[in-house]
Amino acid sequence: MGAGRSVAPKGVLTYSSLNAGVSLIIWAACAIVSMMAALNHAELGTTFPRSGAQYYFLKRSLGPFIAFFSLWISLFSTLAGTTARGFLLAGYIMQPFYPGCFVPEMPKKCLALAILWCLGILNDRGVKEMTWFQTVSTVVKMTVLCFISLTGIVLLVRGRKENLARFEKAFDSEVSDASQIAEAFLQGLYAYYGWGVLVRIAGKVIIFKL
């Protein structure tokens, strides 16, 4: 659902003590780490094309004991993460109907449950329907991100002094301590999460060799 890119920016900026320069460095570092992890997973997935490849990687490298516990942790964390993303999406949908105040918990929970049920039913109907939904939702998310990025670029190009001053004094504010920087880094990694999902079906992917 793309919850990370909606929540993480606030968390990164907050734990960076509103230091724009440190926040940008954290985003860049998270992007590099995520890209390296994605490339490593892609190489492992093509080298060992197994279904549930992450379990296979851990079992082959660290042994069955660690792989077993990782599997159980993933079982509960995946369910909790899906529930949290549905709850977050429901909050964003209902927030315009409650301007200036918090959204009531019960309607938010009901809408989140309805979203999860709809996604489950759509997923059960077949691959084509789910592929269509994923394509449409990805286009919508990319459109919103491009709109936000272009808006920021336009404001910078227009040369407003207050916008340029923020970049000139990006590192002048207080710098967070190590624990807060680590928390901000985790917040940034959450926004880039998803690079390890593809290898879960590596055993079902047909690789064509020239």
Could you say which structural class the secondary elements and strand pairing correspond to?
Answer: mainly alpha
Task: Say what oligomer this is.
Answer: single chain
Strand proportion, as a percent range, falls in under 5%
- DSSP helix fraction: over 70%
Order of helices and strands: HHHHHHHH
The whole-number mean of residue pLDDT values reads 78
Major β-sheet profile: none
Low-confidence stretches: none
Q: State Rg.
A: 21 Å
- Give the strand tally: 0
Tell me the span between the first and last alpha carbons.
35 Å
Total number of helices: 8
Shape: globular
Considering the chains and any ligands shown, give keywords for the structure.
single chain; mainly alpha; 8 helices; globular
Secondary structure layout plus pairing:
Blueprint: H1 4-15, H2 20-47, H3 53-62, H4 64-94, H5 105-125, H6 127-157, H7 161-168, H8 178-191
Helix pairs in contact: 1-8, 2-8, 3-4, 4-5, 5-6
Report on the structure:
By secondary structure, the chain is an all-alpha fold. The chain is 74% helix and 0% strand. The chain has helices spanning 4-15, 20-47, 53-62, 64-94, 105-125, 127-157, 161-168, 178-191.
